[in-house]
Amino acid sequence: MKRFLPDQFTIMLVCTVILATLLPVHGVAADYFGIATNAAIALLFFLHGARLSRGVVVAGILHWRLHLVILLTTFAIFPLLGLAIGFIPDSYLPQPLYLGILFLCVLPSTVQSSIAFTSMAGGNVPAAICSASASNIFGMFLTPLLVGLLLSVGGHGGFSWAALQQILLQLLAPFLLGQLLEPWIGNWIRAKKKLLSPVDRGSILMVVYLAFSEAVVEGIWQAFSATDIATVVVVDIALLVTVLLITFFGSRLLGFSKEDEIAIVFCGSKKSLASGVPMANAIFAGQSIGAIVLPLMLFHQIQLMACAVIAQKYAERRRQKEALSAAAATA
């Protein structure tokens, strides 16, 4: 039963949205809070860069087929599914929420949960580490480009060089600085994971609070009904199930081992809240992003619950197989 309950961070996200609804920051205070939020995001990506071991990247490059499948799932199959969702009439899925789903579809994979679920299920952990990390690095370039491309295709505007510049300045520059300093500070930062984890969560919560404060001031809860939110949940579930099936059967058709299949399923089906919220803040700077990040926040909890169940099923089958092998060996 515990696996179906929301994790602590999801509860914190819900509380942050409630706080923004009851006590939204606005005016001059919102301007100063926005500056602090941008600084926290820069620190977050600096730490991401400093934590990522170059040895992990080099070791994983050799398994290029697996990484290519995961990257194609993340940045090609997901966006195509996002465009297909656009055929749902506005009366069922309002345009601002659809843009949030489209944005969700072009985000990179998660890092921590992809690795954790791959490990839990008995998959190829080194490959998962490399693929999830590479997904986030490529995402800094591909996400703003794909946002511009898909919005142009859908008639919602075109690509903005200003958005890409904002990504490069606010996210990529701190990340590269962290990578440059990794040989000197990487081990210390990896050893202080618990101490530095508040930066990860705190920066995301700050962006969510600022985003929903702006959205509340502009009347987000009056703009969308409970039916609209329920529609987003259904679409998120359908999207996740579709990608899980594609990665599951696709990895088998391509002849990957069970360990690689597990890595492909978990890395290919995830979308990163940790990268997505800061990216939304940069790409849609000057706009209200509450409706844009709402589908991502819902997808975050859905993917955690679904993948926890799947990882346990994989682990259970592995234990059964090992037990049968042990019994056969002693017979």
From TrEMBL:
Organism superkingdom: Bacteria
Keywords carried by this UniProt record: Membrane, Transmembrane, Transmembrane helix
Pfam families found in the cross-reference section: SBF_like
GO cellular component: plasma membrane
Bilayer-spanning residue ranges: 40-62, 69-89, 95-117, 129-153, 159-181, 202-223, 229-250, 262-283, 289-311
Matches recorded under PANTHER family: SODIUM_BILE ACID COTRANSPORTER 7 (PTHR18640:SF5), SOLUTE CARRIER FAMILY 10 MEMBER 7 (PTHR18640)
Name under which the protein is recorded: Sodium/bile acid cotransporter 7
Species this protein is from: Rhizobium subbaraonis
